[in-house]
Amino acid sequence: MILSDTMLIEAIQAGRVSFDPPVDLHVQVQPASVDLRLGDSFRVYNYAQHHLIDPTQDVDLDSISELVRQEDGKPFILHPGAFVLGSTLEYVRIPVNLVGRLEGRSSLGRLGVVVHSTAGFIDCGFEGNITLEISNIGKIPVALHAGMRICQLTLLETGPVARPYGPLRGSKYQGQREPTPSRLRKDVEFAAAQNGKTP
Questions:
Q1: Among residues 103, 133, 178, 189, which one is catalytic?
Q2: For this structure, is 178 an active site residue?
Q3: What does the alpha-carbon distance between residue 38 and residue 75 come to, in Å, rounded to a whole number?
Q4: pLDDT class for 82, splitting at 50, 70, 90?
Q5: SS3 content of the chain, % helix, strand, coil (to 5)
Q6: Would the pLDDT of 78 be above 70?
Q7: If you placed Cys at 16, which of 11, 82, 114, 131 could pair as Cys (CB 3.0 to 4.6 Å)?
Q8: Does residue 79 contact residue 45 with C-beta atoms inside 8 Å?
Q9: In the chain, what is the straight-line distance between the N-terminal and C-terminal CA atoms, in Å?
């Protein structure tokens, strides 16, 4: 069952779901979702410096991108065809009996801005700033402003979860605080550790 606005407000006020900084219940809570705002940092890829990305190899994936922080209210200009990582302003905590679905806002989608390519699912027990996979599939640059409502989070009830998102699962993005690059390499490391081998 998808949580309605009444259920969302009750969950937030009871502390079962939390957002830091707090969301404005009158502006950000929609009929069945919560609008989340854009943070002020972006991870930009250095395409000209790398001919290949192989995420399974022993390569520092942080080195193929640069963290850029917008200051003094200046917008981040997202050019046509560009792909960057952003993150939500809010640090989100989801309990183990809820799961989240992240979607873009239609007002930005109508400008060609897409906020995720595959990472629209937020696991039970996740906490952190949500990394956004932002693309401009339109033909005109779009200015993105820190603090603007960029996406919407829908929460759904689940059954009992035996192993929620977190350390026991080897979850790679728990507690992330800024746009976080791919940690696919950690899948290999975690599998090897479970088997008692060195990757």
A1: 133
A2: no
A3: 11
A4: very high
A5: 15, 35, 50
A6: yes
A7: 11
A8: no
A9: 41
Any residues with CB less than 8 A from the CB of 108 and at least 6 apart, and which?
A: 115, 142, 150
> Between the CA of residue 4 and those of 11, 98, 153, what are the distances in Å?
10, 13, 12
Question: Within 10 Å of residue 117's Cβ, how many Cβ atoms?
Answer: 11
Of 60-74, 102-116, 130-144, 183-197, which gets the smallest average pLDDT? 183-197
Specify burial of residue 138 (Cβ count, 10 A radius: 0-12, 13-18, 19+).
middle
pLDDT at 34: 98
Residue 193 has pLDDT above 70, yes or no: no
Looking at residue 167, the DSSP 8-state letter turns out to be G
Please classify residue 39 by burial: count the beta carbons closer than 10 Å to its beta carbon, then call 0-12 exposed, 13-18 middle and 19+ buried: buried
Sign, CA dihedral 151-88-37-39, equals negative
CA distance 95 to 63: 33
Find where tokens 């820190």 sit. Answer: 146
Residue 61's pLDDT is: 62
Phi and psi dihedrals of 28, rounded to 5?
Answer: -90, -25
What is the overall mean pLDDT for the chain?
89
Distance CA 19, CA 1 (A): 21
Long-range contacts of 163-167 (CB under 8 A, 24+ apart): 164/96, 164/123, 164/124, 164/125, 165/123, 165/124, 165/125, 165/126, 166/125
